[in-house]
Amino acid sequence: MSSYKLETAINGFLGYLRSVKRLSNRTIKAYQYDLTSFLGYFRDNNVLDIEDISKEHINQYLSCITLSKTGSTANYNRKLSCIRSFYNYLGQKGFNKAFIEEYRPVKNHSRQISYLTEVEKKKFIDTVKYHSTPFYKIRDLSIISLFLNTGIRVSELVNLRIDDIDFRKEGFSYIRITRKGGSEETLPLSNEVAKRIQKYLKKRPQIKERRVFIGRKGTNLQANSIYYLVKKYLRKADINKKKMGPHMLRHTVGVSLLKKGVDLFTIQKILGHKRLDTTSVYLHVEPEDIERAINLITI
């Protein structure tokens, strides 16, 4: 087999993700970021061709990740997943990918997630109600309520279109969202959240833009605007967490459902996790949970 440069292979892989797999720009940028690090390491070690990369090279690269300042389990697993995907692509072109399949993600049983308690959730929503101008209060309350009702991802929210909402007079209303990977799913909305969105849409300017949530200039809100919006209200509510953003609201839904007795399989379906072990992160135990459990025991 003729020489195949690592940089050429990476560019081909990124093009494949864009044109064949049709992944989002955000996801492709994440792959590009990790593969740039991968390429840089092998350039520094004067290994430029795919066929010259050995298992020992991969071992050394992964060891460097572990020893780096950002050497968290999540960072290690993300980079490993990226490399495995890259080698699966190379396997389609006839390169040996067998040795890369020997590597497995590292389990992290001590992962701590940030989420809102029921008291904090009420405080957060009240802050949105009483610290906004009229139009933004209606819009932002719809956004926050949608996050806390369905646990959808920020990418799913910003791409939600008016035609994706099925309002019904009786029973649940529904939204149709596009999950990671491109699959479509339908999720029910509580009556309260559906009413808030309907109220917002009545005040929303009638413009060509069909995505539900728009900014001051009539263009659809981007993910970074949603991050800013969520953090702004959390700070105004005097809520401080290790990680503050829309994904924390997603965690809030997962934890809240579990505490209310909803099984993991249903939570997995609601949140759109492909793997149950992703959902199992919500199985952590808080001290107050232990206290409540002990209080249930009679002697």
Question: What can you tell me about this protein's structure?
Answer:
With 299 residues, this protein is mainly α. It folds into two domains: 6-102, DNA polymerase, domain 1, CATH 1.10.150.130; 118-292, hpI Integrase, Chain A, CATH 1.10.443. 55% of the residues lie in helices and 5% in strands. It has helices at residues 6-19, 25-44, 55-67, 73-91, 118-130, 134-150, 154-158, 191-203, 223-236, 246-259, 264-271, 276-279, 287-296; strands spanning 165-166, 173-178, 184-189. Strands 1-2-3 form a three-stranded antiparallel β-sheet. The longest helix has 20 residues, at 25-44.
Question: Briefly, what is this?
Answer:
InterPro entries: CB, DNA_brk_join_enz, Integrase-like_cat_sf, Integrase_catalytic, Integrase_recombinase_N, Integrase_SAM-like_N, Tyrosine_recombinase_XerCD. The chain folds into two domains: 6-102, DNA polymerase, domain 1 (Orthogonal Bundle), CATH 1.10.150; 118-292, hpI Integrase, Chain A.
What count of helical segments does DSSP give?
Answer: 13
What can be said about the biggest beta sheet?
A: 3 strands, antiparallel
Question: What is the CATH homologous superfamily assignment of the largest domain?
Answer: Intergrase catalytic core
Structural class: mainly alpha
Rg over CA atoms: 23 Å
* Average pLDDT figure: 85
Task: State the total count of DSSP E strands.
Answer: 3
The CATH topology label of the largest domain is: hpI Integrase, Chain A
The domain count comes to 2
Architecture (CATH level 2) name of the largest domain: Orthogonal Bundle
In the CATH hierarchy, what is the class of the largest domain? Mainly Alpha
Order of helices and strands: HHHHHHHEEEHHHHHH
